Amino acid sequence: MSRRIAVVGSGIAGLASAWWLSQRHEVTLFERCDRLGGHTHTHDIELNGRAYAVDTGFIVFNALHYPLLTALFDELGVESQPTTMSFSVHDEASGLEYNATSLDTLFCQRRNLASPAFWRMLLDLRRFYREAPALLHGDDEGPTLGDYLARGGYGRLFVEHHLVPMACALWSSPVASVLDFPARYLVQFMANHQMLQVQGRAPWRVVRGGSSRYIDALRARWRVRVRTGDPVHAVHRGDDGVDVDSASGRHRFDDVVLACHSDQALALLPDADARERAVLGTIRYQANDVVLHTDERLLPRHRKAWAAWNAHVPAAPGAACTVSYWMNLLQGLQAPRPLVVTLNRSEAIRPDRVLRRMEYAHPVYDHAMVRAQARRHEIQGRRRTWFAGAYWGWGFHEDGIRSARELVDAYEAARLHEANPAVLDGVAA
């Protein structure tokens, strides 16, 4: 039997939930912004009379590690093209720079050939690849990343000028948060994405014409009522349905999918119970200032050090690492100037080179969050309320769409159980 379902939030988790649920049910999608997509955000930029579609949120994927997203793109006919995931580091205090793509770029500063500390960093890197997988076999929560590195005696250059900047770039997190990251959880991610090996990594791709093209393809084919610019203020749950209070008024549904961030979902539930508060309230978020610009000074000084991802280690002790994405390389844009997306270093960008400013929030990973993730089953589907979001995984696009797939499967199983409980309970009719 078809049901009326509200989906709140239009990031990948909300879009995928709406797409799959709408194939059997009547779905209304609420989005507070005037666009769909959340962290899927493509900007139309004009330089010298030519247009460029530049992404500032979701950028890369690959078939091996993003199977659900890749399958959706194939189903929708979304075109993609190869890209690179090269990585560089610039240390403001010492001037150290390297790009890990090749020997030539790794030693773009020839002085590093005679640097014992630099060679030790490379040896520590290989040792980390070799030793870190042992963390996957423990029975307890294991150490934080900071504790693990300290116990292992890893050198300062490897910690401060490679692993931490890389993790900061991956999760858009400050240094302190990265060092509090559960070491096992980080290694699980790296192992899953073939990042603990030098050779044989899966090739990465980008959506041709900008990531938002997949949203256009979804909207052209789905049967979803879309309410953009209609923020939801509260969700009231009863025995026979839910009321969604939004800027446009009160709307009645059978069920609701909260596909916004977990803290936003909790704020929408005035009658949240103890379990919902414990699970959703444990997950913290980091706000990140994001700027799309053309100021090449935010990239490394050596042209050979320019990479797809460029980490910047500031001179001030304790200051946050930042990252600048060189979108010309990532998206294959033949633009006359560098198109750069920089996180949390806005004050260094020349104002006349700024094209767009955004703010995105990302989950903060610690042991408490991992424990909260393991309790999803305690709140999922109770009181006509379902939760989807990348925060149930590592925080990436595939995690968001996976949460939607798992939600939809559980939702349909619950409906089947309602219609015929004897079958699913293993009881003979």
TrEMBL record:
Give a Pfam family name. Amino_oxidase
* Ranges where the Amine oxidase domain occurs: 12-298
Q: What is this protein called?
A: FAD-dependent oxidoreductase
